[in-house]
Design goal:
single chain, globular, alpha/beta, 320 residues, four-stranded parallel beta sheet
């Protein structure tokens, strides 16, 4: 990470490690006239976290939780109970893996496909935490338990299912005061996540092209046939499919490539798919092992795109 040249950390004093880390940070800042001044601030490090809004388009509902929060009780919340979106700390996992685990522990729903919509510092004046925000569709068939949290962690979480429109009213009335939950609900409202007619998606198909073929033309052709077949099925479901190969291969030929894997091929083949991904809504990962396809999935997750891992996960499009 590139450091700010106008900031110099002078000292870090550990004030408490009873639960997480509370430090007093002394640092120097360069002023506009070039002089340096000393300041001290307290910084609380509890790690990073993730949160998710589960929504059901057919039922027009969302899943939230309710639990006691002592800091709110100490600052005007008469019951101390807070209605929130499911959330938790990363615990040395990726944000995606963490929020899947937290969702099952807290709500009882086992979800596979999550969509990252952003990340934010929630209290940058005092807390180091970055919170990763996700949304995901849920259905009754995904329920594998009662939720409620982990008993050994003394969690006592109530699982709530509300009509989406009611939760928007609950923000206005003050029944929902949790910042991350308000942000997720407003994201859902602005992006019309719960509209019955799903908008058309442009879906990049990521699968093996050369992987496992030894560059045998017949095996490569078989891979392409399979991806084209998936593209047709996506098209018939009302979406717009696209393969990186559709763009890259004509360009590679026009640029004068003489063989698979030569300098021209490598310069165009994979980078063209990365460019294309920026204009897609989702990725469908199909087929066997492929480093290139796996990189498309990683890049899609970083960009907050939807990642489907089975054709059946893609909902049919009822409107544009």
């Amino acid at each position: 990470m590139k450091m700010n040249p106008k900031i110099r950390i002078v000292n870090e004093e550990l004030l408490s490690d009873n639960w997480y880390l509370l430090k007093k940070i002394t640092y120097m800042t360069e002023t506009t006239n070039g002089s340096w001044t000393s300041q001290s601030r307290e910084s609380y490090d509890r790690g990073n976290g993730a949160t998710i809004l589960l929504y059901n388009r057919e039922r027009q509902t969302v899943i939230l939780t309710r639990q006691f929060r002592i800091p709110t009780y100490m600052n005007g919340n008469e019951t101390g109970m807070m209605i929130e979106a499911c959330a938790g700390l990363l615990d040395k996992e990726s944000p995606e893996d963490s929020i899947r685990r937290e969702t099952e522990e807290e709500t009882g729903y086992r979800i596979a496909n999550v969509q990252k919509i952003g990340e934010a510092y929630m209290s940058p004046g005092s807390v180091t935490e970055i919170l990763h925000f996700f949304v995901a569709e849920y259905s009754s068939g995904m329920k594998v338990g009662e939720g409620g949290g982990i008993e050994e962690e003394q969690e006592n979480i109530e699982v709530l299912e509300y009509p989406f429109q009611r939760t928007l009213e609950m923000i206005k009335t003050g029944e929902i005061k949790d910042a991350k939950t308000i942000m997720l609900l407003q994201y859902a409202q602005i992006n019309r996540l719960l509209e019955p007619g799903l908008r058309q998606q442009q879906i990049l198909i990521a699968g093996p092209y050369r992987s496992g073929t030894g560059d045998d033309p017949n095996l490569i052709r078989r891979n392409m046939d399979f991806m084209n077949e998936m593209a047709l099925r996506i098209y018939e479901a009302g979406h717009l499919p696209v393969l990186g190969e559709w763009y890259a291969l004509p360009l590679i030929e026009k640029a004068g490539s003489r063989t698979i894997g030569d300098e021209i091929f490598d310069r165009i083949f994979h980078p063209s798919s990365v460019r294309l991904l920026n204009h897609c809504d989702a990725v469908l990962r199909i087929g066997g092992p492929s480093l290139g396809a796996d990189e498309m999935v990683r890049t899609a997750l970083e960009l907050g795109k939807i990642v489907y891992r089975d054709l059946q996960e893609i909902p049919p499009c009822n409107g544009v």
